[in-house]
Design goal:
By secondary structure, this protein is mainly beta. It has a 26-stranded antiparallel barrel. A two-stranded antiparallel sheet has the order 28-29. A hairpin with a 4-residue loop joins strand 26 and strand 27.
Amino acid sequence: MINQAINSSSYVIVIFALFFSFLTNTKGQDVEKFFNRRDSSSYLNNILSGDPFSLSGNYGFTLRSYNTDGASHRQTPLTSTLFANATAHIYNINIPFNFILNNLDQFSQPFHKDYFKGMLTNQRNRLTRLGFSPYYKWIKVHIGHRSMNFSDFSLSSHNFLGGGVELTPGKFRFSAMVGRLAKVEPVDLFLDRPNLPVYKRIGWGIKAGYGTSNDFIDLILFSAIDDIHSLDIQTTASTGVQPAENMVIALKGQKEVIKNLKIDFELARSGHTRDLTAPRSPISSGISADFDNILFHRHASTIYANAASANLAYQLKKIRMGVGYQRINPGYKTFGAYFFNDDLENTTLQFSGYGIGNFSFAGSAGLQRNNLDKSRPANYKRFIMSLNAGYNLKSWVFGMNYSNFLSNINYVQSDEINLLKVVIVTSDASVSISKNFKGRKNATHNIQLRGSRQEVNQNIESPIGNPATVMYVANLNYGLRFPSNWNINLNADINQNSLSGIRQVRYGIGARMGKTFFDKKLDLSLGNQTYIGTSKNDVRSSLQSIQSFRSSWRINKLHNLQLQISAIQNKNGNVAHTDKYSELVVSLGFQGRFEYKPFQKKPDSSGNKQVHE
């Protein structure tokens, strides 16, 4: 019954019907209250209350130098980052903004005459993030590099360069955005492995709804299209990448049916044109749920698909129980999410509990299957589960987690740059134990033990397939801190990785000693870490030794300076040959906070607020 509803051609009609049936139940006084703002002077007085202007935030600068001896550079010789996050307050209007400026260069030190010039002229450098989002009560505006979230199946926290708005007057809800979702990236022939080109992508979206945080209904429209002229189509054709277009219409809602019983759902339908250069294929006649209008044109490469999810949860004191259902048909696509898996159906039980004595847990368990349209030569049905649990017993803390999931990834193959679709199934399990206790002379001891197992199965969609990779990791840490501000840390770990009968084992041991000076304003430490790697099958071995110095100086309550120097010696070889090389990494960082209030409103003798500079 559910499958028939998901695949029905009346899917879009159902979305609109549910949305407008909800709106017809909206109380008339809510609409009248919104459109009859009689006391405009009081509204203006609220905006102009508070301090006329203030500015607060944080900023920082990092500089990292990398040099090597005996081998070619494995990293960029010099990198620097300048960032700032601040919020301006103009009366009761708040304007948060941020920016990040990265610089990657081939100079080995920052004192070269062309280094700072290159921060603005080098094509590898760019203003990666610059944006702000002023808001006042129910009005919020986004400008620059921002992200917004409409729903899981439409616009889902994807970064864009442009503008947006969020309005929530009363129970009305309205959001809109427009901007660049992806920057053009041509094929880089200088890379060791060819990259997939990226077309310039522009998107826009609208969300309109009604309700509160617990009970609401939203209708969503999201669209994105690639700029055909941003790349040479003849060049990109060999990579399998073509300019594409996408449109999603969705309905999202949530309702508290009875006390402590809540349901939420989302229905969505997408149109995905994989190749905009393909000929048009308009719909002939009749009513259809397929998009073909002034906003989205149907091509021969256009596919349509549906997605749906629903969750029912009940809160019983400290325990939450629920059921969930999710179905994403093959070919469903949204350009508003970075990662998205299609062709799957999940049916799960959900459970969580917090503060039950000293025990807390959260997880889900259920069934998952793919090949929903029976188009693949093989399909799977499997049990999926995720569980996180913790237990505190005086000074002991116990934890465990388990999860298994899948993801679809497109790989680029060899020089022909053919695409290879891979289904990766990952299973993770880990346990941890820690204990804190006081020793003699008020010394503080901390012991942590952690073990994990990870299995990754790359099931390439071909008759051959790939074997699984199994990794075991065990780690032991011990920390000791004295009242005299001396501290010692010891660690040991082992890592075993098995693939296709080849087993690689890596052992590590390390120590670090440090002390704080000048009323804990200066923190200095020295450390050494050694790793030994072996592989009996092909008689390979490796040895890596890292000596490091760290310092942190708290200049004052608002500013902090860090310096880290790491000297790394590497030795890799086998029976016939051995390679030796060394690396030196120096990092310098500065962080600061600020608060600027040139004006303040203070009460005078009569009790009225006056502005003082």
